[in-house]
Amino acid sequence: MCTSLRFQHIREVLPMINVRPRRPISLERKTQRIGWMFIIPALALVVLTHFYPMFETLLLSLQSGKANNLKWAGMRNYVRLFKDATFLAALENTLFYLVVQIPVMLSLALILAVLVNDRKLKGRGIYRTLIFLPAVTSLASCSIIFLRLFANDGYINTLLLNTGVISEYIDFLANKWSARAIIILVMTWRWTGTNMIYFLSGLQNIDDSLYEAAAIDGATGVQAFTRITMPLLKPTLLLTTITSTTGTMKLFDEVYNITGGGPANGTITLSNYLYQLCFGGVPQYGYASAIAYIIFLIAALLAFIQMKVGDKE
Amino acid sequence: MKKLLSLVLAVALLATMSMAALAESDKELTVWYSGGVNGKAIRKAAELYTTANPDVTINIEEVATSDRETRLTVALSSGDMSGMPDVTLFQDYSSQKFLQFFPGNFVELSSAFDFSQFAADKVGYWTYDGGVYGLPFDSAASATFARLDYLEAAGYTLDDLKGITWDEFIEIGLKVKEATGKYMLTETNYGNLLMVLVKSSGKWYFNEDGTANMINNPGVVAAVETIKKLHESGIVKENSDWASYIASLNNGDAVCTVTGNWILGSIVGAQDQSGKWGMTNIPSMGEGFGHYSSNGGSSWVILESSQKKDLAKDFLKIFTDDTFNTFVINELATVPTYLPAQNLDCIKAPYAFTNGQAVFADIMDYTAKTPVIEYGPFNSEVEANMLVAVEEVFAGKSVADALQTAEETVNFLIEE
Amino acid sequence: MNFSGKKSYFWRHALLIVCSLITSLPFVWIIICSTNTSVDVLRGRLTLGSNLGVNFQTLVDTGRFLPAFKNSVIYSVTTTLLAVCISSAAGYGFVVYRSKAKDTVMAVILLSMMIPTAAILIPMFRLFSRMKLLNTIFAFMLPSLATAFLIFLFRQASQSFPGEIIQAARIDGLGEWMIFFRMFIPTMKPVYSTAIVMTFMNTWNAFLWPLVVMTDSQKTTMPVFLSLLTDSGYTPDYGAIMLAVTVTTLPTLIIFFALQKSFINGLTGSVKG
Predict the structure, then answer these.
(1) Cβ–Cβ gap C81/B61 under 8 Å
(2) Which ipTM score applies to this complex?
(3) Average confidence (pLDDT) per 10 residues, chain A, 313 residues
(4) What predicted TM-score, i.e. pTM, was given to this entire model?
(5) Please, what CATH class does the domain formed by B28-139+296-354 belong to?
(6) Is residue B303 packed enough to be buried (19+ CB in 10 Å), middle (13-18) or exposed (0-12)?
(7) Residue B307 half-sphere exposure toward CB, CA atoms < 13 A
(8) Cβ contacts (< 8 Å) between C235 and chain B: which residues?
(9) Does domain A79-310 have CATH number 1.10.10.60?
């Protein structure tokens, strides 16, 4: 409150300073240099702890062999990938999660954000806290919760058996489609709240007067949403879309802990397979690195498209 | 802002202080383990050893099985072993992978131990290029553990399960289920059972040249067909995870479990079932297949990076000590693979939990009869793809087709 | 929004209540389980038990619980504070001094979050081994101090920071760094709250990297301790596990509650005259 008052004051003062000095070029350049100073510490860390290892991984992806006995192989790992049934299954599953889960989660998050953003809604503070709750769970608890729910002797089967809906338990994790549905459910459960918070804060930035004006002009709720809310939410939408896309491309934990990739590789992700190649069997770092770069390429391509669409100045 | 800055500085300072590494004396050993029974055993070993050698300190640290292997894989691949212990417990299944692909990192032990005194099956896991690199601890011989009261209620005795085939087992199972409503067998995803069955054929998954052999491997084909029959028979309680599996034993939901004898440690957890359990050998898959197998189990390994290899070897000698092995049998219901232990009185003593049956002597007997096979380094690859094959068979694929795919996939992973 | 009538509030509440139940009931369940014995948890008991004290004792008796908790607090708090400072400066720099070159650099930085940790684990380990930083807080911390996500978060948020404030401050003679510290940070409290919660959450739950670099048992963190408890090599004690899970959830929850007022106020700040 206090800060916004201060700015109000500044804004009132601003028009009085009517001389906006044109900055000489040298000053502009100096400011630019200071700008880099803000960025360099972070940039240096990213280069050291991310890009340097990523570069080594890129080199690894051009070598093949087991454990530390690696030989140059050119593009052979990448060619080999497309003959690998497990890789193709993992690619299919990962893209399936991407296409199905992200739209569901982001729409749900946006709807919830719009609902709890209503100042007239009673108990909105409680709602937003409860919906955010799953984000703070550690992964260990997340997998215990969902295993206890969907296990053969879990709560859902017990409930269905006791109410007489079914006579024999359903092995949810043994069927490819129900196992996939559980993974999508877990991801949605865990991450919708986080995205809702992002949207909510984006929404709070939109001035109420815009909606009031629209209402006076006779706009419907839907029109106000598409004409005012969506355009102004663009930076937030871009953030949530890119982080969700990247997160899903790298999806590992939920599947590893709940289905282990089964049944019959029906839920395995690219990251799961990569991990299996590094730490499950005899390490094949070169081959695994090639998978890492496939993940990278897809995520980067999608982010590039999203940036092009959503990040105009 | 000032407050924030000073807080950051204070925390950073604290962190730097806690960084100062603790100097480790040359009479100090660090040991990694996991699991309740292994923990109690290694603690007892350390207690006995440090009583005899008061100047030695042994740091016993629990690290989960898979976490231990992840850490070792990363350290071995990077060539920095500074954070690794002197001695560590190792899964027998992973032995050849590490011995063959990270050679020179494990201490050869046959100069310190006479390995003819240990179960041949276990020594086989750790033999590579003429040397032995792991000290076997517990027996992993497989057995059928059965609830005597449930069998009796259906008109059977333990002897009816001895030396039978899986077909007969299923037949009995159907009758027991009819009479008592209990599942004859409890399982997780059949992963353990698959290993038990294949090993009982006396041959593992690989050809002489190291390539995978599944489709033309009678043991593997029979194992998958047996599991298919079990799955379709309706006598198996199929649990979604390990927790449910253990619970099914302790809650009395099932009559039998067929797995490594180490499961006894979990079965005795339900003390109210004392006297109700019996043990016998495992069913065979038919003509030409055996009644003995093993699965799971671990051994102790000394890392070449250790600065105290001699001390470590000397410490591991405690595993051949009578006092130690008596403790392991009596208190932990665990059978050592050190063969002279069969002369200990406690091994022949009747065991109350199994209705007076001297199970430890029987386990020693099973251990000696377990086929000795060559494992090779690709067990994880095989395990993952065989599980896929089993799940595909459950979903309707033919055994031949599923095994064809599994064999091709494993060979694909081996070839490069 | 003022477009809907009173009638629709019923359906809004209905939807929100259903969502809230789905998200919060598992927590109630975890808390109930942490008061029960392992056998009761496996039998699916849904009422409060009297085993809380025993479960707590079980955790303490491992000798690893309290040190792991302490380590996680120290590492995560330090990492979070430094990460937020470093990354927010960068995010600010990218917007306030926006140029074509900087936009490109931002896009390149974004690429760094598109590789799975498992893939760069060995090169990272080699790097930290060469820097002699294994088993130090720096090994835990350095890879989390400047993350693409955090920088991007601050970059997107900074876009709503009014340029005229900066102009005015410059005219008043305030240096560029002073503008950042005196004007930007206080104004953007909401983003900082968001960033603190998210960064703390991520560092607190980090598993794979801490597992391999913090091998000294005195330096174990909570997720590694939890992994130890749930190891299926023997009969896990589910009562104790659920208590550990409850305790593990608390710090992030407390931080969320403490910051929730400003947290909710905005990712992109509430700078609207």
Answers:
(1) no
(2) 0.89
(3) 38 40 61 89 96 95 91 92 95 97 95 86 84 81 84 89 89 93 94 89 76 85 85 87 94 90 93 94 94 96 89 59
(4) 0.90
(5) alpha beta
(6) buried
(7) 9
(8) 36, 246, 265-266, 269
(9) no
